[in-house]
Amino acid sequence: MLCIVWDDSIGVEKLPEQSQAIVIYTGWERHALIGSDIRLSCSFFSWRWTSEDVTFSWTYRPDGSRDSISIFHYTGGVAYVDNKGPFRDRLEFVGNPGRRDGSILLKNLDFNDNGTFTCDAKNPPDIVGRPSSVRLLVFEKVPIQAGVITGAIIGVVLGLLVLIVVIYYLMRFLVARRVFSLSVSKHGKKKKEGSQQRQASSLLSFPHIPSSSTSSTSSFSHTLRHMYTSS
Amino acid sequence: MLLILLGVLVLHLIILILLIVSTAASAWTVGGDSSTDLWYKCMTTNGGYHCRPASNADWIQAVQALMILSILFCFFSLIAFLYQLFRLVKGGRFFFTAIFQILASVFVMCAAIIYTVMSPDDGSGAQFGYAYVLAWVAFPLCLVSGLIYIVLRKKE
């Protein structure tokens, strides 16, 4: 008979489950106006369900400094905000840990808040991951993108140029049509003097009416063609 | 007659080359070890030659736009000159050419004036570079060339 003896003196320990990598997403760079509020978002991707022991922590490193200071920590369902450091009374937790969102809200920004904010999230047993950083830039006024004004000036001037050329040719065409219709009405009276109407053309001259044509309707396009080739 | 034509054409080409060099070269303001201009600020620090884009200020973008427009209009006037050379009626004047050339000279003048007035005073011995001088030289040449086109008539 086969017996299984359970030896309690050794004790059997439960092996921890294998941990996998967790990927943390924040922005790359954030711009803000002085005195305004900004929301720094942080979320993560993990193959496991969101555990109850999920933790978020934010640290801040000012521009030009090598030291980081911890400003926010969320663990065990409780959010602990900074109450001693540079962000006391200005930091608020607006994230939703159940939805893997660990975003914070910074209020009333100042120039001293320029720096790098690092978010680190852990979702046990997934604890292996790289914290992700977002850089905050505080401006007095939002800077204009390079090249917007340049492109606008060039576009407007070239557009005006095209418009002027189009209007010029349109006026030339309309005036020539009016002159043509006027001279056609005189064509009946001056039919015998048709040879005198062959004048050398300047830009806005009378249209060139060949003496052989008698009907005005067929000679309109013919006349236009003559006018443009002779000028 | 042919000599005048050749002279006018050579002058036009020289003006175009001056404008292109002035716009593209990065030497509107040169300091001891830095040369700034329309597009880049370059400095020779003790690590090498570092360049970064020029400031995004409004006036620099206006100067960029005006210089580019002056090159474009000078080029248009060259095309118009060649076109009118073969197509103009005898005794006619080169109006289109002259208008474009004079507009180009006005744009160069505006660009140079804006840069003169608004250029940053660093105080570190920064002086105006050769590209700035070329812009100021191109302006009267361009104006004279435009006036020549107004006076010029197509003969023979």
Produce a short descriptive summary.
Chain A has 231 residues and is of the alpha+beta class. Chain A has 2 helices and 12 strands; from the N terminus they run E-E-E-E-E-E-E-E-E-E-E-E-H-H.
Describe the overall structure.
The complex is a heterodimer of chains A (231) and B (156). Chain A has 231 residues and is of the alpha+beta class. Chain A has helices at residues 148-187, 219-230, and strands spanning 21-26, 29-33, 38-40, 42-45, 55-62, 69-75, 78-81, 91-93, 104-106, 115-122, 128-129, 132-139. Chain A is 23% helix and 26% strand. In chain A, the strands form three sheets. In chain A, strands 2-12-10-5-6-7 form a six-stranded mixed sheet, with no helix packed on it. Chain A has a three-stranded mixed sheet with strand order 4-1-11, with no helix packed on it. Mean pLDDT of chain A is 77; it is low at 195-224 and 226-231. Chain B is built from four helices and five strands, in the order αββββααβα. In chain B, a hairpin with a 2-residue loop joins strand 3 (40-45) and strand 4. The longest helix of chain B is centred in the middle third of the chain and has 30 residues, at 58-87. The A-B interface holds A 143-154, 157-158, 201-202, 231 and B 53, 56, 58, 61-62, 64-66, 68-69, 72, 89.
Main attributes of the structure:
heterodimer; A: alpha+beta; 26% strand; B: 156 residues; alpha+beta; 5-stranded antiparallel β-sheet; 5 strands; 63% helix; elongated
Round the Cα radius of gyration of chain B to an integer and report it.
18 Å
Tell me how many strands of chain A there are: 12
Label the CATH architecture of the domain at 21-143 in chain A.
Answer: Sandwich
Please mark out the parts of chain B with pLDDT under 50 across 5 or more consecutive residues, or reply none.
none
- Major pleated sheet of chain A: 6 strands, mixed
| CATH class (first level) name of the domain at 21-143 in chain A | Mainly Beta
User: What fraction, in percent, of the residue positions of chain B are helical?
Assistant: 55-70%
From the spread of the alpha carbons, the general shape of chain A counts as elongated
Instruction: Outline the biggest β-sheet of chain B.
Output: 5 strands, antiparallel
Structural class of chain B: alpha+beta
Radius of gyration of chain A: 41 Å
Number of helices of chain B: 4
Keywords (chain B): Membrane, Signal, Transmembrane, Transmembrane helix
Membrane topology (chain B): Multi-pass membrane protein
Organism (chain B): Sparus aurata
Family (chain B): Belongs to the PMP-22/EMP/MP20 family.
